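Weekly modeling sync, notes
Attendees: S.R. (lead), two postdocs, one rotation student

Agenda item 3: backlog of single-chain predictions. S.R. asked that every request posted to the team notebook include the full sequence so nobody has to chase files. The rotation student volunteered to paste the first one in as an example of the format we agreed on. Action items at the bottom.

Example entry:
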Amino acid sequence: MEHLFWSLVRALGRGRLTRVDDGGAAQLVQMQLSASETRDGTPRLAEYGFQSNPPAGSDALAVFLGGDRTNGVVIACGNQQYRFRNLAPGEVCISDDKGQSVHLSAAGIVVNGGGQPVTITNAPQITADAPLFRCTGDIEGDGNITCAGDMRDNSATNPHTAAGSRAVYNSHHHPVPDVQRGSDNATSDTPQPQL
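Predicted structure, as returned to the notebook:
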């Protein structure tokens, strides 16, 4: 009975990660379980599709099969210093030690780049199904812009869309100087549309 008790006691271990090897098929960690016990090359399991490389000092929980401290696997990791705090019930957040995060908040999804660039790569098309796309900075592109609706620049002061500006331009006249009144025209013809 005493042997079973100690097997159960030794079946779990809580410690801190001291090193992570993320280069192989399985992530291997070194963890300090106590002042006198360090385990090296212990595999770490994570949920499919969610990978991370926890920084040194992260908390870790390991399970040792049959209480054998040489046959363990890390099943959970956390980091108190970099934990995203104050989540509301039901919210989810992916975050790192650089301040980057994707927060599925009750008010909507918030992507925080942490002062780093955000890159979308290897996507043949990006679709935003939203009635409004708002950008607080400049927009640059290497290709063409195609728009099914109207476009308006300097929207704070310009009442015309690009199509409206073309209509105003195409219908305007200029006075022709030095033309005497009579049967002669005193204004120019409207501009001819250019192809």
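Discussion: group reviewed the output briefly. The domain at 2-78 is CATH 2.40.50.230 (OB fold (Dihydrolipoamide Acetyltransferase, E2P)).
Action items: rotation student to repeat for the remaining queue; S.R. to check formatting next week.
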